[in-house]
DNA sequence: ATTGATATGAAAATCATTCCCATCTAGCTT
DNA sequence: AAGCTAGATGGGAATGATTTTCATATCAAT
């Protein structure tokens, strides 16, 4: 058991990018890929524990962090300081519009921002300029729900 | 003692924006205004304590948070999750290029981003869209210093 | 001066995240 | 197939920023 072909992609291949292929990493990865929007490490850990697939919280953190560093996950920061992760199939740099209600994320065309950031980087004299762009709001559904009370 | 006229502006007037005018708030505010770039609450607290103007850490946090909420301070998030504050004289929405070495902040022309963000907000169907844009890098000075080792 | 709403601050509580370290295991090597 | 070891795991303790608690102090209106 445990050789069913995954529906979306092969976690094993992805895991290989960050080191040794272990069961835990595959589990965390699969869970991350199954999530629609952004998730926190703790939430993911809870989900796994609830699903009867216990993985250490530490491992979840390590795996997610490693994946983000490998450029296979996007990271954003909640207003409370929590880090949220999202699996990124492609290697391209992207920005999202995130729903603060449900975590749903919508990739947005960030080309204008990229060029703008590059220009700033070039003209400022600063070295190693990186940028963070986050758009957040209430998606139509959550907005509806919020208005209904 | 403690009735010297501040060099830059009148903290008292600013403080009035967030509630009662107290000595502590004036002190925190004055300290914040005296700082060039962004500062963390703890750093500001240390500075004050060192200066022989002890103010409770709690109060520093409360004051800075209140000020940020009142729109008189900008807030950014460090990679470690720490919040950094910066006094903002005007009420206008601004974005900065921040030096990760020394905290120096350079206001940048963010007009392109604003229009971009507005467009996204309009076309997405999301409500209450807000955006966070952070540019960070090493300022020429810090870069020099970093290279010299 | 009296007074009641606010503000203060030391210590304790939270909370996400990281560290420690004894124990396991993937993936060779023999 | 058994042995080996660098790399991985995970429970619990540690960290570090921020918040809460609550008894005390202070503003500012009366």
Automatic annotation (TrEMBL), chains A, B:
Query: Is Transcription regulation a UniProt keyword of this protein?
Result: yes
Gene3D superfamilies membership: 3.30.1490.190, Winged helix-like DNA-binding domain superfamily/Winged helix DNA-binding domain
The record, for InterPro entries, names: FUR, Fur_C, WH-like_DNA-bd_sf, WH_DNA-bd_sf
Its main subcellular localisation, reduced to a broad class, is cytoplasm
List the CDD domains hit by this protein, alphabetically: Fur_like (cd07153)
Q: Any idea where this protein resides?
A: Cytoplasm
The family line of this record is:
Belongs to the Fur family.
- Subunit comment for this entry? Homodimer.
UniProt protein name: Transcriptional repressor
Organism of provenance: Streptomyces albospinus
């Amino acid at each position: 058991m445990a050789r069913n072909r995954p529906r979306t992609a092969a976690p094993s291949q992805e895991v290989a990018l960050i080191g040794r292929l272990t069961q835990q990493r595959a589990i965390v990865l699969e869970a991350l890929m199954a999530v629609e929007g952004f998730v926190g490490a703790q939430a993911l850990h809870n989900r796994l524990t609830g699903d009867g697939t216990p993985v250490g919280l530490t491992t979840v953190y390590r795996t997610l962090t490693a994946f983000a560093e490998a450029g296979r996950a996007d990271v954003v920061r909640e207003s409370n300081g929590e880090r949220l992760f999202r699996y990124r199939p492609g290697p391209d740099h992207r920005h999202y519009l995130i729903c603060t209600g449900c975590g749903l994320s919508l990739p947005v065309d960030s080309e204008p921002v990229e060029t703008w950031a590059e220009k700033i980087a070039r003209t400022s004299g600063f070295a190693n300029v990186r940028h963070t762009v986050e758009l957040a709001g209430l998606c139509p559904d959550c907005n509806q729900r919020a208005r209904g009370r």
